[in-house]
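A reminder before we start the practical. When you read a complex entry, don't treat the lines as separate problems. The point of joint prediction is that each chain is placed relative to the others, so the output describes one connected object in space. Small molecules and nucleic acid strands, if listed, are placed in the same frame. In the example below there are two entries. Take a minute to note the order of the lines before looking further.
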Amino acid sequence: MATVSLQKERGVMARVFVGHSVGITIRRSLFFFMVLLAVVAPWLDDYSHLLPFPIHDPLRPDPFNPVAPPSAEHWFGTDTLGLDVFTRVLMATRVDFTLALIGVTLGGGLGCLAGAWAAYRRGWVDLVALRIVEVVQSFPVLLLGLAMFAALGSLDIFGPVDHGMAVLVLSISMVNFPLYLRQVRSVLLPLTEAEFVQAAKCAGLGAWGIVWNHFIPNARGQILALFPLTCAYAIQIIAGLSFIGLGIEPPNPEWGSMIKGGATLIVQGHWWVSIFPGAAIVLSVYSLTGFSARSETLVGPGGTSA
Amino acid sequence: MFLANRVVILAVVLFAVVVIGFTITRSTGTPLYASLGVAVSEAIIEQRAEEMGLNEPIVVQFWTYATHLLLGDLGVSRISRIPVAEDIALKLPATAEMVFFTLVVSFIWAIPLGVRAGLRPNGKLAKLGEGMSQFGVSVPAFWLGLLFIFLLYFLPPRIPEPLGPLPNLFPPPLGRLGSVDPPEMVTGFYTVDALIAGDFRLAWQALWHLILPALTLSLTSGPPLFRVTRSAVSEALASPFVEAAYSYGLRRRQVLIRDVLRNASPPVLNLAAMTFGYLIGGGVLVEVVFSWPGIGSYAVWGMDNSDYDVVLGVVIIAAVIYVILYFIVDLIQFAMDPRLRD
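Here is the predicted structure of the whole assembly.
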């Protein structure tokens, strides 16, 4: 009990960093470091004289210096257009993290609501929810994304929002919706008959009131445990779809499309164009999974959900 | 009850696949312009619309689509003008062969390590397995493939001129055989076909090309196999029947094989079958990286050319294979485990 009260007295940030193994603390610090870099990335150029690393314009090509190997001037080398890989890897963090966050929040949030609702209502609502989950999860994740792009490819429904990014976010939500639905439902199903639910009913609270005020808070632990994992997974999906040219259009920095840009160079030994953005993916996934005790495949056979 | 449930799931998924497919083909703009181009007269468009049944009521259109689909008609590629089903039938063996060898590789590393980790949870091999699964989960498969191409194809030193230009340690990432003619088609697995034709050199060649893609996919899809094996073994080890077997005076070796491994195997085999089904459509990016001429590359090719029937055909086939395999695995489980029958 003592430790529990101690944990309560500490702030949120202290709880994130203190009381874990060294490895976990390092991973979490790494994550916050990446977020920090991503946030300040656009202003780095103005203060480049103060920085210990060389920063370039991520979109200004240097036609006289294409596919240059890593050097003091270009830490991660340059790509086929002479763009600085280091700056682009930094800038891409913004896109990948933001899209993953939006997609997971959207799909996961809806999934939580639907899962809690299914657990509360049971009966046919529950049955329909489970069928939806099964249908969505019988498609391999990347093919689901591919189908989304095929379906929404020629539709102009997002207005001013970038079309590729919007479809990426929708694909991520689509993948996350069943994950959260299942998890939340399975946690809450035993609570349907709990006394506090009965009490809330007697007090005259409506169904949505009970789901919102009493059900979802009870699944908070599971939701929070799932969140970093799904974000990490979302980054991989975004990069994967961009790798086959879907989502983020090439001159804009994104890890997957950068890897694609270097894929044909690698057989000639020009490894830096692809390897560094991929390493950034690995690092971000690894640091994100440091927030959860579990690290496992989420989708597909053997995942928590399959 | 269990079985009825499974049949319902199978039916619902198939129906959903048809509905999604239909919506997508109808929402991707006008298939008319795609097949005719833009510079044609109104009359031709009208005639073509009539031919394609686009003037029928939507319900009739849906019915036609569904019946065609269930009879295996996935439409025609707008670019190559070849029926999608034919193309997929041609490319599916390539994917299946890659996935099969992926599982072979996984059985070589994930399962022995999993067994070992179940028996000795704190041993060095358990740590190695855990490390490998951590890595496999964090790393994107397509990037790992590129890394392997660099490290194993490009980097290993080639023998210098005097001894002749000897081949690299691993083949270039250019598909199933490189520039050699494929063996006569029997099973569609080049390794098997070459053996049937009696050409060992060719079989070796095919196997050689399989190693890198299979290794890549295995490292990224193997972690669940490792974990399930580990937990199945440690669960079996802790169960009363193992204690009973020891108390009968059986030797450790006998108990391990007869009781522990035998009881731990169903969930592992189950997962292996599911992994096979999932990877048929889940190895898209690895196929692209290694120019593997499977259905994944085909889908990406279709996407690049806005050839949506191709994309959809692959999506549908992959989902159906997965669901049917899921169903078969359940049937086998049902037949093997009497506890499910109540």
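Discuss with your neighbour: Chain B touches chain A through 60 residues (CB under 8 Å). What might explain this?
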